[in-house]
Amino acid sequence: MNVCIIGSGAREHSLAKKFSEDKTVNKVIVIPGNIGMIDQKKISIKDVRLDNIDKLSSLLKSENVDLTVIGPEKYLDEGLSDKLQKLNHNVLGASQSSSKLESSKIYSKQVMNKFNIPTAKYISFDDYYAAIDYLNEWDMSSGIVIKADGLSSGKGVVVTFDKNVAKETIFDFMKNPKCTVKAKEIIFEECLKGQEVSTFAVCDGEDFHILGHVTDYKRVYDNDKGPNTGGMGTFSSPEWPPENIKRKIKDQIFSPLIEGLKKEGKPFKGILFAGIMIKNSEINVIEFNVRFGDPETQVLLPLLKGNFSNVMLNAAKGTLKESTALTHSLNSAVHIVMCSSNYPSIDGTKLGIGYPIQIDQDVNQHVVYGGVGQNEEGNLINTGGRVLGVTSLATTLVEARVEAYEMISKIKFTGAHWRKDIAKIN
Ligand code: AMP
Ligand code: GLY
């Protein structure tokens, strides 16, 4: 079969690699992809405007594409999955209406409350002054979480115990023209405590299959300091979370959501990703996303055993039950992201980009590329915030971690920064 991946980041590179490893896959095209993706022989990149559906559809037909997988939430939110399915393409990607689970924090909270899915209490505001008044009464000793309603690349959430920071955040999200996050509505949430996990499932509208559980490091600096980012690194290990929690995640979160949406005539097809807070034996949903995570995918996929492309194609066709089983490796995986200077640049400071990337050839096969391009001399350079990442697999998490950092030490570019504490278990 032939596969098309939509997107240009390291997550899409990871997907392209996974499909290309499958013997039944002849070629993978990535639109628009990036230059770092094309040294695997089955993978090519194509530049077609994604808002020109007729051109895109013609390309998928002329390339005999059997399955299209959409990576970024932006395209799902714009209805790309619906538009391609109308033209008879097999697409794995949430519909525009399902995408609201991710693009509107308020809608997502309403759905969770309706289906009794455990989540933090919240209140929403569309008025700046009403939000400030409510904040003045808030007991800051247990913290507050402020979220911008709408897509914001992981930058629209601030967790703080400081009332001045909370005030600035409300101003930034609702009033500050210089802030990259812009929101008409915001929500305040109770601050949950515990350990986070991201759980992924592939869904065909009727059924779902859990793909795995991943820990993401969202803050930019070690020890969870600094602003939130899209994700600075991840790990996945069979021991975490414990089996009883994995069962609860399936029974109290995924089953009621998939069943509930089906009953309401809004079946969910695509990848569902729940961010969950675990405290002792209690679980609470922090958020839903309607796609693969970046950089969660970079550890999720290498640990999946079985015919991945068969399962993804069946999910797209609504026949997940007929697909061969996917099982989970007993190995652990660690992924570390290298970023350009000034990332995540919440205040709009310029990223340090355009620098050549030096990389040992033996490390390259473990690297996935995101924000990269080519300079006039044909050298690979950094062009975005999250530039690349390395994934290491080993029988233990400790070994996987050591190997991942060894690989990172063999990659250099000006201004590069990365977290030093990914998968560091005290
Ligand atoms: P979100 O974009 O909703 O996933 O939020 C980004 C990050 O903010 C999460 O991964 C958590 O680390 C943190 N966060 C969001 N909501 C809460 C909450 N209610 N309590 C504690 N931390 C939260
Ligand atoms: N790593 C978080 C996300 O993809 O949303």
Helix content: 25-40%
Q: Which small molecules are bound?
A: adenosine monophosphate, glycine
The biggest beta sheet reads:
8 strands, antiparallel
Label the structural class.
alpha+beta
Strand content: 25-35%
The total strand number stands at 25
Kindly report the spatial arrangement of strands forming the biggest sheet. 16-15-10-11-14-19-24-21
Instruction: Give the overall pLDDT as a whole number.
Output: 96
Rg for CA atoms:
21 Å
Shape: globular
Poorly predicted runs of 5 or more residues = none
Distance between the termini: 45 Å
Task: List the total number of helices.
Answer: 13
Which labels suit this protein?
single chain; 426 residues; alpha+beta; 8-stranded antiparallel beta sheet; 5-stranded parallel beta sheet; 25 strands; 29% strand; binds adenosine monophosphate; binds glycine
Explain what the structure shows:
The protein is an alpha+beta fold and 426 residues long. The protein has 13 helices and 25 strands. Strands 16-15-10-11-14-19-24-21 form an eight-stranded antiparallel β-sheet. The protein is globular, with a radius of gyration of 21 Å. The model has no long low-confidence stretch (mean pLDDT 96). The site of adenosine monophosphate has 16 residues, from β7, β8 and β16.
